[in-house]
């Protein structure tokens, strides 16, 4: 396989544009998935009969092939970025929901009881005690979901919003490996940078873990 290195400077603007387009699809997917997963996880954690239903439903959605999700959404949202973001949000939801539930489950019962004994309302306990203690586990899910979303954005090239995935399509159609290599390298770099940013955010938001270390 021969790489045309002169191709890279000639297509620098296109690479920047596609990278920004890639991120503008992946990042909202994770954010929307987290916004949906948080309240569902609280319900699943506190209402045990609904736990299996919610987790099972998210697992079923995860088994649907990504292209099939985009096809099912097309009659509703059309060939728009909304279709790509909605499909990817469904995929991130299963990881975020399960990790958030596990994070809430990991909070020691004695901590909840102590908060209740102090007269703290349930909502305040959730916001000031349970979620902060569950934060490391939740962030582990966010990291996995973010890397997964970045990798799956390329599939959305089927509907014209695949970001760096367009390089794969172009390279395969012309039997020209250089765009494919560029797309793979940039996707991998985005995933590594995003994961490093999230690790830094977690480190900054958990000073009690730093002190313990």
Automatic annotation (TrEMBL):
<dbReference type="InterPro" id="IPR035906">
    <property type="entry name" value="MetI-like_sf"/>
</dbReference>
<dbReference type="GO" id="GO:0031460">
    <property type="term" value="P:glycine betaine transport"/>
</dbReference>
<feature type="transmembrane region" description="Helical">
    <location>
        <begin position="26"/>
        <end position="45"/>
    </location>
</feature>
<feature type="domain" description="ABC transmembrane type-1">
    <location>
        <begin position="19"/>
        <end position="199"/>
    </location>
</feature>
<keyword id="KW-0813">Transport</keyword>
<dbReference type="InterPro" id="IPR051204">
    <property type="entry name" value="ABC_transp_perm/SBD"/>
</dbReference>
<dbReference type="InterPro" id="IPR000515">
    <property type="entry name" value="MetI-like"/>
</dbReference>
<feature type="transmembrane region" description="Helical">
    <location>
        <begin position="79"/>
        <end position="97"/>
    </location>
</feature>
<dbReference type="GO" id="GO:0055085">
    <property type="term" value="P:transmembrane transport"/>
</dbReference>
<comment type="similarity">
    <text>Belongs to the binding-protein-dependent transport system permease family.</text>
</comment>
<dbReference type="GO" id="GO:0005886">
    <property type="term" value="C:plasma membrane"/>
</dbReference>
<keyword id="KW-0812">Transmembrane</keyword>
<protein>
    <submittedName>
        <fullName>ABC transporter permease</fullName>
    </submittedName>
</protein>
<feature type="transmembrane region" description="Helical">
    <location>
        <begin position="180"/>
        <end position="205"/>
    </location>
</feature>
<feature type="transmembrane region" description="Helical">
    <location>
        <begin position="133"/>
        <end position="160"/>
    </location>
</feature>
<dbReference type="Pfam" id="PF00528">
    <property type="entry name" value="BPD_transp_1"/>
</dbReference>
<keyword id="KW-1133">Transmembrane helix</keyword>
<keyword id="KW-0472">Membrane</keyword>
<feature type="transmembrane region" description="Helical">
    <location>
        <begin position="52"/>
        <end position="73"/>
    </location>
</feature>
